[in-house]
Amino acid sequence: MIRICAADDVPEGTVVSADVDGTPIALVHGTDGEFYAAYDECSHAAVALSEGEVEGCTLECWLHGSRFDLRTGEPTGLPATEPVPVYAVEVRDGDIYLPVGADGRPTPSNGVTR
């Protein structure tokens, strides 16, 4: 596991961009109160998802409006048709952690890689 930031650094309904050993991560505090992490690039267009809008457990790409379910990475709105990698988030002692592999890179929980 690798520490990303303090949970207080990500207010509810916001997204923080992080880099984990060269992997861009969108760390989301959903409006449902849960924390999520996704690869910080839309699968439809190469733009940062961390610039998007949060609603519940979904994140909307700011450019074309594709929405992604942050629990599964699956698109829930066009034009995206391919999922994005998502990562398990652990909140421990007020800090947010992501699992990493032996190579130090985050390990997707949905098996999708980029």
Please tell me about this protein's structure.
One of its GO terms (molecular function) is 2 iron, 2 sulfur cluster binding. By secondary structure, the protein is mainly beta. It has a single domain (2-98), classed as Rieske [2Fe-2S] iron-sulphur domain (Rieske Iron-sulfur Protein). Helices cover 0% and strands 39% of the residues. A 4-stranded antiparallel sheet has the order 2-3-4-9, with no helix packed on it. Strands 5-6-7-8 form a 4-stranded antiparallel sheet, with no helix packed on it. A 3-stranded antiparallel sheet has the order 1-11-10, with no helix packed on it.
User: Can you count the helices?
Assistant: 0
Total beta-strand segments: 11
Q: Give me the strand/helix succession.
A: EEEEEEEEEEE
Rg, Å, rounded: 13 Å
> Low-confidence stretches at least 5 residues in length (pLDDT < 50)?
none
Estimated share of beta-strand residues: 35-45%
General shape = globular
Which CATH architecture? 3-layer Sandwich
Main sheet: strand order: 2-3-4-9
- Report the top-level CATH class: Mainly Beta
Distance between the termini: 20 Å
CATH third-tier fold name? Rieske Iron-sulfur Protein
What summary fits the major beta sheet?
Answer: 4 strands, antiparallel
What number is the mean pLDDT?
96
Secondary-structure-derived class: mainly beta
The total number of structural domains is 1
